[in-house]
């Protein structure tokens, strides 16, 4: 249906009353989680949540009216909304939307539009760097890029920074935390392998199963407090009560804080593999696999086993032009992992299953896992 412009109302009708302006506590968005560890849930984010996040990110990334974000993630994702849309706009910057992400078109878009930064997931960086280093003209306008939504290996991070010639800023957060809770600084000490310190105004702690803080350097669940914590799950009061306890958002992630307050993510609690009573973290195995020069990306999941209960199984995507075998990769792990942590099988595949945001879909891998 089309409505001609001359039929649009030029003035309010008699008796029309303007709605009350929203308050900081009113819901602004409901964003659904990816459902990677269970049924998707609607996360209620308030105007106050979004204002805090956009202003804090703009300050953390030193954004000004001269900054220009290139949006390549879907706008139903909190990263796209907060990092690429709201953060530049809150300081008078701008945003370019080019449609569905295209590896073949990306560098042409950057050269034509001249953005100063973009935000992406590790898979996108893996796809981009697999095409070789871009020309200097193609990335001349960029001053940094952001990596979030999933962990990136140090090896891939080094390759991307070397190819692009710009810093890749690692961050961490959840939809329930309005996007970002920790992030390496653009101007300051960046620690590869960590996701940086807590953003200003937020508090990150590591706690044991009872909710008590653990000593520095020890593993535990990552919990977060601050103006970024969601209002709750839409029509899911029980799930909200299980996730936000006394103001602390329980993330379900295992992490470690170092002496400088920089956070390292060990893995998802629900992704942990229990092999013969031993707790194995897939991310540790994935990090060891990523040190092989032929490994572009990989994922490790648990497979049922009659003797041990569960055993780790790895799926690997190789860099173009390489052809590593499972046996070759297994040999590579011998000096890098204890025997109990080594995968029972390593499958070299053309691609890994992904969700709508581009993150590796481990639920799909677990459903189809084979030894």
TrEMBL record:
UniProt entry keywords in alphabetical sequence: Ligase
Domain AMP-dependent synthetase/ligase, first and last residues per copy: 18-234
Ranges of residues in domain AMP-binding enzyme C-terminal: 284-359
Record bears the keyword Ligase: yes
Gene3D superfamilies, per database record: 3.30.300.30, N-terminal domain of ligase-like
Protein family: Belongs to the ATP-dependent AMP-binding enzyme family.
Protein name stated in the entry: Acyl-CoA synthetase (AMP-forming)/AMP-acid ligase II
Organism: Tsukamurella soli
């Amino acid at each position: 249906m089309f409505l001609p412009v001359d039929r649009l109302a030029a003035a309010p009708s008699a008796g029309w009353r303007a709605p009350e302006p929203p308050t900081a506590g009113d819901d602004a968005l409901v964003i659904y989680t990816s459902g990677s560890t269970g049924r998707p849930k609607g996360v209620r984010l308030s105007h106050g949540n979004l204002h805090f996040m956009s202003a804090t990110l703009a300050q953390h990334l030193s954004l000004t009216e001269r900054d220009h974000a290139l949006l390549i993630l879907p706008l139903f994702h909190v990263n796209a909304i907060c990092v690429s849309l709201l953060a530049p706009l809150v300081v008078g910057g701008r945003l370019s939307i080019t449609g569905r992400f295209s590896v073949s078109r990306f560098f042409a878009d950057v050269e034509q539009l001249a953005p100063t930064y973009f935000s992406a997931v590790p898979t996108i960086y893996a796809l981009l760097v697999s095409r070789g280093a871009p020309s200097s003209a193609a990335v001349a306008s960029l001053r940094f890029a952001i990596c979030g939504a999933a962990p990136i290996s140090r090896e891939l991070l080094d390759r991307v920074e070397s190819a692009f010639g710009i810093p890749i800023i690692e961050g961490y957060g959840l939809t329930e935390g309005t996007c970002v809770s920790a992030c390496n600084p653009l101007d300051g000490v960046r620690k590869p392998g960590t996701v940086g310190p807590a953003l200003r105004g937020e508090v990150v702690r590591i706690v044991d199963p009872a909710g008590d803080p653990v000593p520095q350097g020890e593993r535990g669940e990552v919990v977060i407090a601050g103006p970024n914590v969601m209002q709750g799950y839409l029509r899911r009061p029980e799930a909200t009560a299980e996730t936000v306890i006394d103001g602390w958002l329980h993330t379900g992630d295992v992490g470690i804080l170092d002496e400088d307050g920089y956070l390292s993510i060990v893995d998802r609690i629900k992704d942990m593999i229990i092999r013969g009573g031993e707790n194995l973290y897939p991310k540790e195995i994935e990090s060891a696999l990523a040190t092989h020069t032929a490994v572009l990306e990989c994922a490790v999941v648990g497979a049922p086993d009659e003797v041990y209960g569960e055993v780790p199984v790895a799926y690997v995507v190789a860099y173009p032009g390489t052809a590593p075998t499972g046996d070759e990769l297994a040999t590579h792990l011998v000096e890098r992992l204890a025997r109990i942590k080594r995968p029972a099988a390593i499958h070299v595949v053309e691609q890994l299953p992904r969700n709508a945001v581009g993150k590796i879909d481990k639920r799909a891998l677990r459903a189809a896992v084979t030894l």
